[in-house]
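hey m, so remember when u said the tokens were messed up on ur end? i reran from scratch. heres the input so u can diff it against urs
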Amino acid sequence: MKAVLLDAYATNPGDLSWEGIEKLCDITIFDRTPAELIPERCAGCEIILTNKTPLRRETLEKLPDVKYIGLLSTGYNVVDIDYCKEKNIPVCNIPAYSTNTVAQLTFAFILEFCSRVGVHSEAVHNKEWTNCSDFCFWKAPLVELSGKSIGIIGLGSIGKKVADIAAAFGMEIYACTNHPAPYGNVKFVDMDELLAKSDFVTVHTPLTPKTEKMVNAGFLKKMKPTAFLINTSRGPAVDDAALADALNSGEIAGAGLDVLTTEPPLPDNPLVGCKNCFITPHIAWAAFECRERLIDILTANLRGFLEGNVQNCVW
């Protein structure tokens, strides 16, 4: 079968192999594909593999040969799922491949807010310790996690892993989720109670009409002024302008974000350069082991389709 991979570079900039999928089909691999080149590059292809290159209805209507779409991601909002369902085109994603690394980055943000490693390392390199009259100093309040509270919004596989790590730190754990079920020492509460009680609020929900701009001005006003917001889920879950206002006014203490509404961010994104805001460029999934796992599942999904055993179809 003829296939195309539209945006290979982000997943594999050269440190991994595409050998698995190359053995399964006649595939052309592009590092990146501008929107205007999608129809040309996909022409005649029965299989399309994509990460963030969008496949909208108006594009898919020009590609009558397509029989399978494989995603290099868990999220599938880049594909017109309704159209694919109408045409019986399987759209298969990569579930649960990044659980450990997303939870890891969540706590990287939390620990940075607590221990302020970056600011103190910078101070030492700037000779502030060399010139200090005392044997130690600190430039920001240091926080012990034990006994602090964390509010987890969405208790899927990532949310549960975050809860496991929080438990190891001795934190009090609250969760708000659509399908509460007993898990460890997690206390299930409604959103208002979670926001009122949590020292750290971390978002782990999919992007849906209900969760889009869930973190808005009203949401932020319900948080403690000493609390921190972490978002390693989907950028549009946060109203960027509302969060920037809350941070710059001191309404909340800080934010750690791995995702933004538009990626890469627009030059005028109010969160870039914002007070008390750490932003990483959507890297929670990017550990070598995580990307290797993604490609293994991508290959297994494709093999399943070719053998008549579709797996991980999102519709």
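this time it looks ok to me. Residues 288-306 form the longest helix (19 residues). if urs says something different then somethings off w ur setup not the seq
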